[in-house]
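re: that chain from earlier
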Amino acid sequence: MKIQITGELLDGLVLALLNQDEYYGYALTQKVKNVIDISESTMYPVLRRLKKNGDLTTYDKPFQGRNRRYYQITTTGKQRLNEILQLWEEYKGNLDQIFYQKGEEK
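^ sequence. v structure.
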């Protein structure tokens, strides 16, 4: 069984990683794959949407005769990340109340 990840949570994961460092698309996908099952075909539309929303910027850098597109978080992206983190803490707290409740009367 796999727990489904919402788009907003995926946005948060991407923004959190980019808040730590800049990544090119494949490397970013691999980082996210360490935590959740995601394909490149899912990741690139997320990156395009975050860029369109102003949460990310990109730049190209040559590597072995090809260009790699690197992603950077923007000030807007950092604000969005903080919003997602607040929502996550609230959501997680609500779930934890149910998962870890002790001996309440029925």
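The first helix runs from residue 7 to 20.
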